[in-house]
Write the C-alpha cells for this entry.
Amino acid sequence: MADHSHPARPAVLGQNQYGKAENRVVKITRDGATHHVKDLNVSVSLSGDMEEVHYSGSNAHVLPTDTTKNTVYAFAKEYGIESAEQFGIHLARHFVTSQEPIRRARIRIEEYAWQRIGTSGEGAHSFVREGRETRLAQITYDGGTWEVVSGLKDLVVMNSTDSEFWGYVKDKYTTLPEAHDRILATEVSGRWRFNWTEDAREMPDWEKSYEQIRKHLLQAFADTYSLSLQQTLYEMGARIIEHRDEIDEVRFSLPNKHHFLVDLEPFGLKNDNEVYLAADRPYGLIEATVLRDGCEARIPVDLTNL
Amino acid sequence: MADHSHPARPAVLGQNQYGKAENRVVKITRDGATHHVKDLNVSVSLSGDMEEVHYSGSNAHVLPTDTTKNTVYAFAKEYGIESAEQFGIHLARHFVTSQEPIRRARIRIEEYAWQRIGTSGEGAHSFVREGRETRLAQITYDGGTWEVVSGLKDLVVMNSTDSEFWGYVKDKYTTLPEAHDRILATEVSGRWRFNWTEDAREMPDWEKSYEQIRKHLLQAFADTYSLSLQQTLYEMGARIIEHRDEIDEVRFSLPNKHHFLVDLEPFGLKNDNEVYLAADRPYGLIEATVLRDGCEARIPVDLTNL
Amino acid sequence: MADHSHPARPAVLGQNQYGKAENRVVKITRDGATHHVKDLNVSVSLSGDMEEVHYSGSNAHVLPTDTTKNTVYAFAKEYGIESAEQFGIHLARHFVTSQEPIRRARIRIEEYAWQRIGTSGEGAHSFVREGRETRLAQITYDGGTWEVVSGLKDLVVMNSTDSEFWGYVKDKYTTLPEAHDRILATEVSGRWRFNWTEDAREMPDWEKSYEQIRKHLLQAFADTYSLSLQQTLYEMGARIIEHRDEIDEVRFSLPNKHHFLVDLEPFGLKNDNEVYLAADRPYGLIEATVLRDGCEARIPVDLTNL
Amino acid sequence: MADHSHPARPAVLGQNQYGKAENRVVKITRDGATHHVKDLNVSVSLSGDMEEVHYSGSNAHVLPTDTTKNTVYAFAKEYGIESAEQFGIHLARHFVTSQEPIRRARIRIEEYAWQRIGTSGEGAHSFVREGRETRLAQITYDGGTWEVVSGLKDLVVMNSTDSEFWGYVKDKYTTLPEAHDRILATEVSGRWRFNWTEDAREMPDWEKSYEQIRKHLLQAFADTYSLSLQQTLYEMGARIIEHRDEIDEVRFSLPNKHHFLVDLEPFGLKNDNEVYLAADRPYGLIEATVLRDGCEARIPVDLTNL
C-alpha cells in the first residue's frame, strides 16, 4: 500500500472504504389484494484503487455515494428482495463487476420484520412492526470469493431460574457472594458465517437458515442449566454448528443484564427470589467465537452495530 | 400559592412535584416449575405541602425519593403485581394516606411484555422480550378521586394501500402532488382515560381492557380507508369509545412516517407503488383527543414519554 | 366542541393540532469571507377549524404539512434567522393570518450552537458544534396574543461539595443515611415565559435574554449552598425572576443525577469523598414552577422534549 | 485453540473475552477549596486460559466481572486518575500480572470533560459538562507489550464553503449534479495509535498529546480546501502523523452529514448557498487509515463505540 507516485510522503494511506450508509428501502409486493413487505436498512461500502482521491482529491475513480444509494433503490425494483442476503449479493456483484477501480464491496443490511394485522375484509395489506430483534446480513465480495455473515441484535432473553455462579477466583477486590439460583438475562448480539463462498456452489436457503438458527439459539439458551454465561454462550454457538451444516463460525456478544435480588429485610420482608432490580450499567460483557472444528475464524472480535 | 411567611418575596413557588423516577422492578411469580414475569419501570411523583423545602431547604416534610424507591420494591413483594394499574393504585394510596404533607401522588409505569420460549423440559421459566410496544399506565390520587390513564407507545403500523391524500389547501408554498394510493405508516402513541374514579365503584379488568383496546385500535387502523391521517386517528379513537364503556377519553400522537415513492424513471424503470424510501425527519405530526360525548378532556395536549 | 352536524355521534373530537415536525434548517449568512451559522430544528403545529378532516377525511381546510415545511425553508430566505424566537414569530403570524381555518399556530424550535475554529487564513467559515446544551423556543399565536416560552435542555452541571441532605421524614421504608457533604449534579431542563404578548409592545432582545438567563441559572446553581435539590431549583428560578424583567414564569425539571460514594473499606481503603459511582436509573426527579408574584402559571407541568 | 480434553467436539472455542463494561467512575481531587474532576466510563475485557468455563461452566479460572468493577473504583483511590491512558495502564497491568490464567487485558475508557463555572466566592467546585466530544482511550497489555490507542467521537464540524465535488464516475444510476461550492460537515470518530509499547521507554504526555492532536485535526479540517471528504480525511490524518512523533497510525470514520441546498425557485426565491436542509439518513460514510510510512496497521477497520 506504499505510495510510489508521491515520494517522501511521511503519511501513507492504509485500508479505506466508502459508500452510502443506511439507505432505508421498503419494498411492497402485491399478490392481488395480499401484499408482502420487505423493510431494509442497506449500507454500501466499497474499496479498491482509491489512492488518488485521498492524496489529491481527484474523484476520477469514485462512483458517488449518491449513485450507490440510487442503485439500492433501482435493484429493489429490478431484482426484488427475496432475502436480505440475496439482495446484498446482487448489489455487491454489481459494484465489483461494473466498476474497474472497485475491488471489493461490502453490503450490510438490517431487516425489520412485520406481522399482519388480521382484518374482516379480503385485503391483506395492514401490518404491525415486530420489535423483537433486528436481523442482520453482511455480504462481502472481491470478484472471486463471497463471504456472507448473518446475525441478529436486540434479542432480549431471560431464564428466571436454572442459573448459578460460584466457584470463581477470589482476590483482594472480590466481594461478590456466590449465587445458587439467579436470573440470567442477556440481549443477544450474534453473527454467523456461512461456508458458501463460490457461485459454483448452490446457495443456502437464506430465509430458512435464519429461522432455524434463531430457533436453535433460543432453545439452547432455554435448555442450558447455566453455571456461567460463558457456558450458555458456548452452548448456543455449538447448537448452531451442530444443527446447521451451512455455518462454520458463530460469534456472540452477550451483556449480562444483571437482575439484583432486592434486600427487603429492612422492611421485615423475605425476598424468596421474587423481586429484582433490573440494572443498566455496569454490565458483564461476555464475548466469544464458536467454530466448526478445523475452520478458521473470520468474524471480527468486536461486533459493530451496522 | 402566595407565601405569607416570606413577605416581599418577588418570586413565588408554583406547582411542584418530586419523587424517584424509573425504578426498574422485575417480579417473578413461581407456580411450581412454571414462572410468570412482570417487568415494570415505575416513576413516583408526589405533591403537597412542600413550600419550605423550596424556600429554605428544610426537609421536614420530605419523604426521600430513596424511600419512594424502596416502597416500590417492598410493595412488589407485599401486594404482588396483578397489573400495572393495580400496582400503581396500591402505591398512590400509600403515599397519600401515610404522609400528611403529601396531598397528591402520581405513579407512572411502563410495562415490557415477555413471551415464553417453548422448551422440551417440563419447566416454563424461559422468556424472550416482546419488542412490539411499551404499555403505559398513569395513576393519580388526591385522597378522594382516582384518575387512571393507560396507553401505549412505540407501536409501529403500516397500511400498504387504501390511503389517499388530496383536495387540500394550496397556497404559494404548496408543491406537494396529490396522492391517490400511498403508504400510511405511523408509530402510535396513545393514552386513554378510564371513567373509574372512586373506590366505591368496581374497578375495570385492567388486563382485559388493555388487550381489547389494543385490538380495537389496530383493527380501526387496518379497516379505515384513509383520506387523511386525521381521519384514521379519529376512527381509532371512536372505535375505542364505542366498544369500551370504561373509557371516556382517548388521545393520540401520530407521526406520519413518510414513505416516499422513489423516482426510478432516470434508470428506465417504472415504480408502480413498489419501492419506497422510509424517511426519518421531518415528519407530519397529527395529534387529537377523541371524547365520549358530554365528557370533559383531561389528558394533556402534549404526551410525554414516561 | 360538540359536533352539531353529525348528530348521535358518541365519540366527539377534542383538542387537535397538526403540522410538520423537526424541519432541520441550516442558514448560512455570508459577510464577505466571514460566515455566520444558524442551525435550527423547527416543528410547526396548527389548530383551528379542523373537524371535517377528522370526521370525514375532507382536506378542504388542511394546509399540507409538506407546505408548512416549505414555508420554514422559504422564510429562512425571506426573513433570515435573527433569533429562534423572531423566526418563530414570523412563521406563526404567517400561518394564522394567511389561512382562515387556522386559528392558532405553535412553533417549536431547537437551536444548536456552533463555535468558530480559528484558522491561519483570512476566511472564517469553519465551525465545531458546541454540545453543551440545546436551546429551545416555543412561540404560540392565536391572531391576537403572543406567548413565547424559551428554555434549554441537556445542560449537565455538578457541585462537588456544598450540598447536604438530612432532616427528612423517615417511615418504615426509609433506609437512606443522612448526608452532610455530597455531590449535587443534575441535567437542567428549563423553560421561561416572557411577558411580551402584544405586537404593540417592544420585543425583548431574544439573544441577550437567553445569554443572561443561562448565566444567572448557572451562577445560582454554583452559588447556592444546597440543603435539597428543591432549594437549588427555587434559587435558580428566583434568580431569573429577580434579574430579568422580561420573564414572569420559570419551570425546571431536574433529575438528581446520583453520585454514590463507593464503599472502599472492604479493600482497606478510606473514601474521603473522592471516588463516586455515577448512577443512571433510578434518579430523583424534582420539578417546580417559580412565578413572579401575582403572575399566573401557564407552562405545562410536564415538560416535553421538543 | 483445539480442545484436546474433549475429543470429538464438533464445535470448538475461538477468541473470547469478558469483563465488566461501562463502570462510571467520578474522581474528585480536592486542592483546598479548588476541586478537580475526572469523569470516566471504564470497560474491562480479559482473555486467557478460559476454555473450561465455556465448555463445562467451571469458574475456577474466572475472576468475576464484579471484581473487575471493584478494582476500577479501588484503583481510582489507590492511584488517582492522572489521565485515562495512565489509569488504564494501571488496571491492565494489574489483571495480567496478578491472575495467572489472564494473559491479556484490554481497558476501554470514555472520558467526559467538565468546565468550571466561575463563582463570586473563593471556592472552585462548580462545573458544567462540556458536550463537544467524547475522549476515548484503549489500553491493551499481554504481559510484555503495550498497545495504546486513543481517540474521540461525537465531534461535529462544518465548513460552510471551500468544498467541491465533481469529476466523479458516472454510471447508469448516477443522477447527482456536480457541486462547486457545498457545505462539508461530518461527525468525527477518530483513533490514533501510539508507538509507545514498552515499559522501558518513557511514556508520552497523554494529556498534552490529546490536546495537540485534537487541535491539529480541527486545523486540518478547517484549512483543507476540499475536493472530496476522502481528501480532507487524509489531510487530517497526515497532519497528525507529521506533527506528533508519538503516533504511527490514525483511523477515521467520517459520516458525510449532507446539507442539501433547498430548491426555493417554486416560491420565486433564489437560494444563493444560504438555506440548507440538514439530512439524517442516508449519509456517505468515508473510512480510512493513515499510517506513518513503514508502519503496520493495527487499528480495526470497523471502529466501535466503546
Q: What stands out?
A: Chain C has two domains: 16-144, 151-306. The two ends of chain C are 27 Å apart (CA to CA). Residues 109 and 124 of chain C are 26 Å apart (CA to CA).
